[in-house]
Every structure is written in C-alpha cells, then in structure tokens.
Design a protein that fits this description.
Chain lengths: ~150, ~300
Amino acid sequence: MEQAKTALAALFAHPAAPLIAQGVLSLIAIVALVAIARGLGLGGDVRIPDEDTARALADDAVCGFGATDIALDRARIGALARNAQGRVLLIRRHGAHFVARELTSYEGIRLDRHFLTISTPDRRFGAITLDLGPEAQAWAASLRRLGATA
Amino acid sequence: MKPASGLQPFDVVVYAIPFFILAIVLEMLWAAKRKPEAYEPADTWTSLALGLGSTVIGAAAAGLIYAAASWLYAHRVGTVPVVWWSWIACFVLDDLNYYWFHRSAHRVRWFWASHVNHHSSQHYNLSTALRQTWTGFPALSFAFRIWPAFVGFPPAMLITVGGINLVYQFWIHTEAVRRLPRWLEAVLNTPSHHRVHHATNPLYLDRNYAGVLIVWDRLFGTFQPEVDDQRIRYGIVRQLGTFALLHSAFHEWAAMLKDFATAPFRHKISYLLRPPGWSHDGTRDSSDTIRARWLEAPESAAE
C-alpha cells in the first residue's frame, strides 16, 4: 500500500503529469461524445431515393459528369452512373453521406445473377455488392468494355 | 527560462476545452431534433481523435516553436511595448498572417498535405473544428506566424493571440447558426462564411481563408458569400471514403511523396509546390480547372 502511494506521488510529481492527465481526460470525453452521438441516433440511414439524386451525387463527385444512365441498388445504398463519354462512376454510402470512384477497368468486378460485386483500385474504398435486379447482366456486359475503351 | 520580454505565454486553448465539449453536446442535441445527419458517430470519432493527436503533438512541438520565436526575438530589429494597443496590433497582424498561412495551405500542396485532414470530413459541425493536423510542425506552417517576433512582438504575445484566434474559429464550424447581423458578417468570419470555405461546390472552392476577420478575403479578392439556394457539399474534391484515422492523417503526404518519386525529374518539385490536383500531364483536376469547367457549363449560369 505504501509502495503504491509512493508510486502515485511520483507519477503526479512528474513534469509531464498535467499533459498526460489532459490527454486521458480528453480521450474519456471523446469516447463519451461518440457514445452520445450514437445514443441520440445521429447519422441516420441515408439512401438514394431516385435516379435524379444519383445524377446529382455523380455531379457532386465529378464536376460536370452528366450521367445519362443510372442503375440503382435495390436497397438504394449505392448506384452506378454512366455518362455520354462512357465513363462510369460507382457511388456508395459512406456514413451519412455518399462517396464515388470512377471505374476504369473490369478488374475487380464480379457478376452473380442479379448481384454485381465491385472493388476499385482504391483499397480503402472497399468492395460493394449492388443488387441491380435484371439490369445487372447488361451492366456487367457493358463494364467489360471499360478497359478496352480506356 | 524567463522570457526576454518578461511576458509569459497564456495557452487559452487548454481552458477552452471544457467549453468545446459542452458546445458539441449542445450541437448534438440540436442535430437530434433538427438534422440527425449533421453528425455521424464514426466521423465524430475520427475528427476528435485527430484533435487529440494534434494537441499531443502540438504540446511536444510548442517548445520548439517558442524557442524559434524567442531566437527571432533575441535578434529583433525593434521592440514593441507590452501595452493594450500592441495586443490589438499583434492580434490583427497574427490574423493577417493566418490568412496567408491558410491561403498557402490550400494553394501549395506541401502545406495542403498537412491541412487537408481538417477538410476531409463530409460533415460540418463543431467536431470538425477540432479535426486538426498532426503534421503542421514538420510542414513548417508555424513560420507564417512567428516572424513578427523579429520586428519586436514578444513571442508570448504571439502564442497568446494565436490561441485566441484558434478558439474563435471553433464556434464557426456549425450549421446551427445561419447568419449573424449584417455588420458582423461584414467584418468577422462567421459560420456562413466558413461553410463556404469547407464546401466543395465549384463556386466555393478555395474561398474565405480568413481566421477571425473576413476583411482579409474582401481585401485580397478571395471572398465568396454563401448563396442560399446552393446545396452545400462539404469535404474534399476526392472524398476519402473511409473513417480510418491514420489514413485521414497521412493520406495526402503519402500521395504527394508518391507523385514526387514517380514524376519526371523536371516536374518533381512542382508536385510539392503547385496547387493540389495539379499534374504535369494535365490529367487531374485542381480547384481552378473544376471552377473553369463549371463556369463553362450552361447550367452554372442559372445557379
């Protein structure tokens, strides 16, 4: 007990003690704030309600993209957008927002009946499986041409 | 060590932290009622962890920055007295220095690599304010702020007003405040002006660099008022798509150094000093090319 008291006294007497205490308290506060955000249900459950929204998201990602074809995932958590020049954007949900990456080759794309699983060269962007329904086959066929036209 | 000016630095940021926490809780309660998507817990974690890391690294670097300022002060060309008007003069000068630091942080990729993580959240809330860099010291950003020591401003005064500037900028990172009275919007950086700064809309890219006084943007031609019918998109031109902490802190350094390593020799330095998005073969988009393309589009005229 005496040893513990001595060790504690030495710890508090250390010149870096206030800084360490500030760091520990800040970390506790951060955990508490994230817990409050979760507890309040912040973030929500965002979806792409329609093709116009998907077009707007494509333009947000690439200024002037001008999508002409859109394929929406059935759960509305992602979409594919193609413009008149044949460029294709993959749009997916990221937290309470959406992010997009341009697809430049068929590599990393797999078709399984109505499901298209797409991973981009950006490893951190991750892979996403889109349920495109009957449209999946036609989109997969068109995406096979990506590498050739690039 | 007793400072040469006899003035001790006062770190106002440490005392502001409890108020930061309280304000974030209040904003979260506002968001729960009015705009739940204003916060995303994973994003909040990343922002606040970046803030904590920045505080720890900042504390370690503070002594070196203070020593550098003290060295400049020891070789000063004049002496500014510690009186009420010199505090005001120092604050205004520091805010002007902040403007140029901040403008450089968006227009020079070397500084952008350090500053980008403050902008990489797609959210705009009070936690975004604390999403601060870990690499400001090695990027030498402090050089913009300490030179007044050479003309005679005490280093402690510079550190103190710099802290006040930082604390002021906390509260403007919010969507909960729409507009302040017109006379304040004319002079001060406000939530409305700073929303523009964090937006990726082509109209808003690289605008409103001010810290406290928006007059610098008005003076140097970088001011853009918030347009009510424009839906603001926050973040960076190529959104991160991940909440990973280390990636958020270092991704642009990694990308820049990769470009530097692989670029043809005569273009290498340009990848460090030219604006973010610049490329020697013109295959990438910078703020300027995005804005130019947007201005050419017929629909932009209608916006």
